Amino acid sequence: MPQGEMKEQEVPDAHFTVDKQNISLWPRDLPSKPDLSPGLRKPLTARVAFICLSLVLVTSIVLQAVFYPWLLGKISDVKRDAQVLRGHVDNFSNLSSDLLSKSGRVQVAEVQIQMVNASLNRVQSQILSLGAIVERASAQIQGLTRNWEEVDHLNAQIPEVKRDLDKASALNAKVRGLQSSLENLSKLLKGQNDILRMVSQGWKYFKENFYYFSHTPKTWYSAEQFCISRKAHLTSVTSESEQEFLYKTTDGLPHWIGLTKAGSEGNWYWVDETPFNKQQSGRFWIPGEPNNVGNNEHCVNIRVSSLQSWNDASCDDKLLFICKQPYTHSDL
Questions:
Q1: C-beta of residue 279 within 8 angstroms of C-beta of residue 232
Q2: Vertex 277: Cα angle to 273 and 282 (nearest 5)
Q3: Residues in Cβ contact with 78 at an 8 Å cutoff, skipping those fewer than 6 apart
Q4: What is the CATH number of the domain that holds 213?
Q5: Who's near 128: CB < 8 A, 6+ residues apart?
Q6: pTM (2 decimals)?
Q7: pLDDT (tens digit, 9 = 90+) per residue, 77-99?
Q8: Quick check: helix, strand or coil at residue 118?
Q9: Residue 288 is part of which domain span?
Q10: How many domains does the chain have?
């Protein structure tokens, strides 16, 4: 193909953009034109392309001369802003991690707050219970206060009560004395009544003993049986006063007493088992007695009205006799 007849090609318009520090140039899409004849379209396209390329180059140079420093400043500012933004982003990341950490702490704190609330609820219920207990205690304290006032009132009355007790104690002592006197008097009256009852039955009373002086003569053994039937025995003699009472009451009439012995060689003894006092009894024998006439006088009687009035005689002789019954004090 000859050079003058170089095939014309469509040259696209140049288009450029500025991205921070980079400048890019690329063709811009042209609007579709109506189809020309191939002969006319090639030279026109070449010229247009050349013109556009020239304009682009001129514009690029102008822009580089005019706007490049400004663009560099802007790019520098953008870099600084990007660094600041990056710092903010880092700070935000740190803040986010702090927030996450604090969020965990907040959750823990929420759990603790829930536990504290539960504890507060328990404490509140306990406070209510304590309030009820305090009210009951207050009521009890009021009751105790009233009781204490009553106690103070009673304490004030204690001296008077003590005086009354002293008086009552003195009266009680007097009453006990009177009771003792009444008891003694009652015993005395009872004893007197017993004595009167025995006396009404023919017995005589002398120094805590009852004596029955018979009206019918009997042998010594029969007389003892009669006395036993009356819960008594033929009398024993244990003192001079009793001997005097007996011989004066018999008035000189012979009466059997309870002194006897077993055989001629036996010892004297009292039938009611009172111990025999040989030395004391020696003053009560009639002089010359006992003489055991015929070796058959084994029983004793009071024969005369005298201190020395005892006489031994045959137990088969029938004489009056004396029964003796000790007086027994009966309880009331």
A1: no
A2: 130
A3: 20
A4: 3.10.100.10
A5: none
A6: 0.49
A7: 888 888 887 887 777 777 777 77
A8: helix
A9: 204-326
A10: 2
